[in-house]
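Handoff note, outgoing to incoming analyst
You'll be picking up this chain. Sequence as last confirmed:
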Amino acid sequence: MSAFSDNTVQFGHRLASSEAFKSLFREGMLLVEEAAEYLDGAGRGESRTLARAEALAYASESMRLTTRLMQLASWLLLQRAVNEGELTLAQAAADKHKVKLTRQEAATDGALFQRLPIKLQDLVQQSLRLQERILHLDQLLYARKAETAAATGGAIGLEEQFAQLRQAFSPTGPN
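Most recent structure output, in case you need it:
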């Protein structure tokens, strides 16, 4: 383990419990609400005016958008539960298999995507940017835990924790 990866993990934990996370959470939940309002309202009307190929692309992109936003909202809610002490990070990591956080792209090719309603295009782009930010934070928070669990067969033993403490407080410092 390098000192750099240890610092990165600590930064991730600080970020996850910071005002920046609260802002990310609010942004994510507002995007979910905005998308739902659009898809149930104006978007429904706009989709009825589209030609067949565009209507099919609209249906595909709206389903992918909804799925992506539900994944992101689930992750945000899980992390908020950790921040508020309702779950430990270990419990959240164990429950993460229920949240299928995956990288998605827009399914529709560029030219066809450009013919979709502007609001849908905007919501898709916003959701993709949010997805990248959350995937990055997820990597910071859970990658080290996954690496350690894999190396130790699932849990960090006390001896390994003591070794990490000894290394951190040794006169020569961490590696």
